[in-house]
Amino acid sequence: MELKEIVLHRRMEKSMSQRQLAKLVSVDFTMISKIENGEYVPSENVIVKLARALDVNRHDLILSANRIPSDFAIEIKSNPDLQDTLKKLVASYPIPNI
Fold first, then answer.
1. At what angle do helices 18-25 and 3-13 cross, to 10 degrees?
2. Three-state SS string across the chain, please?
3. Rounded CA gap, 17 and 23, in Å?
């Protein structure tokens, strides 16, 4: 699922309005609307707050936004073996024709 779908689905499951979620995350409710409509991808800091408010794993939510969690990035940068493994993994995926 994409970030927008997870945020909308979990907010509805928790019977929360956009304004209520926005207050918990300390953002304007229009940002929640834009996130749910796929018009805006928030910062990692906001995604972590969303994860906490919606009871979702923060790493899963960050990844759903097509981002790498900062703690993952630090680990990757500090581990040459992991970098090599990831390069091989990425190289094994075909590049789609666009």
1. 110
2. CCHHHHHHHHHHHCCCCHHHHHHHHCCCHHHHHHHHCCCCCCCHHHHHHHHHHHCCCHHHHHHHCCCCCHHHHHHHHCCHHHHHHHHHHHHHCCCCCC
3. 10
pLDDT bin (cut points 50, 70, 90) of residue 57 is: very high
Is 78 exposed, middle or buried (CB count within 10 Å of its CB: 0-12, 13-18, 19+)?
exposed
Q: What is the CA radius of gyration of the chain?
A: 16
Residue-level pLDDT at 94: 75
Quote the pTM value.
0.79
The residue to which tokens 């970030």 are assigned: 3
Confidence grade of residue 70 (pLDDT, cut at 50, 70, 90) = confident
User: CB–CB of 39/25 below 8 Å?
Assistant: no
